[in-house]
Amino acid sequence: MKQSVVSQMTTEELKEQIFEMKKALEKLKATHAITPLENPMEIRNKRRSIARMLTELTKRNNQVA
């Protein structure tokens, strides 16, 4: 997910999306441990998307405080 998309999301949407992406990442990791994924870069991309969203959330919380 691109930063421009993340910055346009509301705080609630961000929290929901982070939760969903973390679940998907856990599922991908479990699947990859059993049988190799066709595209293992999916794990990296999901992890980085989660980091982008968490960064945006932290940025918003620091601006409010």
UniProtKB/TrEMBL annotation:
Q: Pfam families from the xrefs? A: Ribosomal_L29
Any one GO cellular component localisation term in the record:
ribosome
Sorted UniProt keywords = Ribonucleoprotein, Ribosomal protein
So where does this one cross the membrane? none
Which GO terms of type biological process are on file? Answer: translation
**A GO molecular-function descriptor:** structural constituent of ribosome
Q: Does the keyword Ion transport apply?
A: no
Would the keyword Mitochondrion be found if you checked this record's keyword annotation? no
- Protein family per UniProt: Belongs to the universal ribosomal protein uL29 family.
What is the protein name given in its UniProt record? Large ribosomal subunit protein uL29
Q: Give the species this sequence originates from.
A: Thermaurantimonas aggregans
